[in-house]
Amino acid sequence: MHILITGAAGMIGRKLTERLALDSAIGGTPIDKLTLIDIVAPARAEGLSGHVTSRTVDLAEPGTAAKAVAERPEIIFHLAGVVSGEAEIDFDKGYRVNLESMQQLLAAIRAVDDGYKPKLIFASSMAVFGAPFPPAIYDEFHLTPLTSYGTQKAICELLLADHTRRGICEGVGIRLPSIAVRPGKPNKAASGFFSSIIREPLAGREVTLPVADTVLHTHASPRSAVNFLIHAAELPRDKLGPRINLNMPGVTCTVAEQIEALRQIAGDRVVARIRREPDVLITRIVDGWPHRFDPRRALALGFKAEGSFDEIIRVHIEDDLGGKIAN
Amino acid sequence: MHILITGAAGMIGRKLTERLALDSAIGGTPIDKLTLIDIVAPARAEGLSGHVTSRTVDLAEPGTAAKAVAERPEIIFHLAGVVSGEAEIDFDKGYRVNLESMQQLLAAIRAVDDGYKPKLIFASSMAVFGAPFPPAIYDEFHLTPLTSYGTQKAICELLLADHTRRGICEGVGIRLPSIAVRPGKPNKAASGFFSSIIREPLAGREVTLPVADTVLHTHASPRSAVNFLIHAAELPRDKLGPRINLNMPGVTCTVAEQIEALRQIAGDRVVARIRREPDVLITRIVDGWPHRFDPRRALALGFKAEGSFDEIIRVHIEDDLGGKIAN
After folding, report:
1. Residue A264 vs residues A195, A208, A302, B107: alpha-carbon distances, Å
2. What is the mean pLDDT of residues B78-85?
3. The CATH number of A2-179+220-247 is which of 3.40.50.720, 1.10.357.10, 3.40.50.1100, 2.60.120.200?
4. I want to staple B162 with a disulfide (CB 3.0 to 4.6 A). Which of A54, A146, A151, B74 is the partner?
């Protein structure tokens, strides 16, 4: 089995690579080749017995996608993309990286034209939805994104579905909820605090909470995101039907519940490192985001997230902190 | 007021041109210039006192859209496109004409960059929806097209909404139901019979009905389609909000009700020209189409279709047969 990962240097890309290296197989088939591509140099996968190739390339550049599919990877995880904030600030870059890369990839697969029909697992986002929302976003709710990022993801989903319907590839689009707890440094994303209010106190650092603790949001861990991607690749085609883009499950809770989970796990001293400092702009942005989902199809298809925010914190401690926390 | 119509040589384009020529104004403002473009030569608008320019150009060709917006039309009706069947048979042509033309047009508007912000009225289609359907398609029902044509229209809607949100244009996408009674010769579209079972008998010719007369479908006349386009252009921006793509109203009835309306208007002898000749393929295609809509937003915004299929037939007789029918 040959697997291609685009955007392999990103946080989810790195974790997916590590997991595939650990498993050495997918759907019961040994992985004998792993190709990692990204616009920045992807980290080398340690531990994978098979052959690993890393390439630093721009997928939106004509010819790059053709090279990437020339060796006929049976499974492609398409994770490459710029984040929401960047796509909003730089209109051209967002459409180029988030949309044209997908168009190039699909065109390259179609151009092979010898019966090649890879599985193409696409990391989409709940940003395809835009307010106003029903109490819980159901599977048939329409896509009216309120960002260019969400627009680009929604268009990629439509293209993926049409190419799948025509037998060019076997696509699955998975709409990820917010990923928490993100490892690494705080970033400027408006959603960053959902992770940093857990990560920073656990690492012994102070952090500010820019919204009211009544804010309700849906989260899944990076480990769950990787599980979703792998489960999507393993899903039998006939279970899916023509509606290939799916809302993923997650843990819905308030910020207060996130903080209480942290207290249960790490104690009052850790929680005391969270300083409340309301930010009007971030509050307004977050108010426009979906709060709750009712992802029946994904659950019926066997996609699983954590059962509680406690569990999400424990996954972070296990996967990113080597099981240790600073008290 | 300068108005640009793309796809001006098509059936709706011609009728819109005639209507604008007749009205000589839109939203109370006199029309002093009308530019018609199409890949085939658009018919010259008779009766328009202002200056009319016709150009035979390919909008998907780089540079064409820039020329089309160089004279800053305040309203653009974007009707250009290939039909469903053609987009399904010719993958590349469908994406080129139906998607790249819109991308070129939006890019050309954005490139002006001097505060130019035209109204852009886009003729979308109910083909953005795909089975299975709820009993009536509501405004928040998701888009899961089952044709490349529907996919291309859905992508254009998303692009239009994002460009509108960013202040590049003032877009409105109107999802047209089936247009009946289409004038002219029978075509090979699977939906053709909805029109031809009325048009052909009225013209003294025999016609075959390929489906059961229990088939339920939603129709609007070409005159209503033109009304929708003009109403969309006249709609005050603040009434619309960010969800700019709208399901249009129509008349929902069975084929039996269509035929009964024809009998009431033209008599048994005309109806006797319809020969029932079931076609398995057409029946299967039509079964996959939406039957009924619940277009609350469009109705609340003042979009109006006919009240009955009788009225649709009378519009055809008035607009296309000069008020006369062959008994």
Report:
1. 17, 20, 30, 53
2. 91
3. 3.40.50.720
4. A151
Burial of A223 (0-12, 13-18, 19+ CB in 10 A): buried
**pTM greater than 0.90:** yes
CATH architecture of B2-177+221-247: 3-Layer(aba) Sandwich (3.40)
* Chain B residue with the nearest C-alpha to that of A90: B166
Q: Are B143 and A142 in contact (CB < 8 Å)? A: yes
- Residues of A labelled catalytic: 149
The answer to whether the CB atoms of A140 and B141 lie below 8 A apart is yes
Give the number of residues written for chain B.
327
Question: Are B151 and A144 a contacting pair at CB < 8 A?
Answer: no
Chain B residue with minimum CA distance to A134: B140
Instruction: Calculate the alpha carbon distances from B24 to A296, B13, B150, B229 in Å.
Output: 53, 16, 34, 15
Give whole-number Cα distances, A317 to A251, A257, A262, A324, B203, in Å. Answer: 17, 18, 11, 6, 78
Minimal-distance CA residue of chain A relative to B144: A243
Q: Find which of B162, B293, B297 to mutate to test the A interface (most A CBs within 10 Å of its CB).
A: B162
Q: How far is B174 from chain A (nearest CA, A)?
A: 15
Write out pLDDT tens, residues A29-73: 999 999 999 998 877 666 666 688 999 999 999 999 999 999 999
Enter the CATH code of domain A192-218+251-291+306-320: 3.90.25.10
In the block, tokens 């040959």 appear at A2
User: Domain limits of chain B?
Assistant: 2-177+221-247
- A133 inside 8 A of chain B by CB: no
Q: What is the pLDDT of residues A197-221, one digit of tens each?
A: 999 999 999 999 999 999 999 999 9
Which tokens hold the place of A225? 């995101």
User: Which is it for strands A216-220 and A251-254: parallel, antiparallel or unpaired?
Assistant: antiparallel
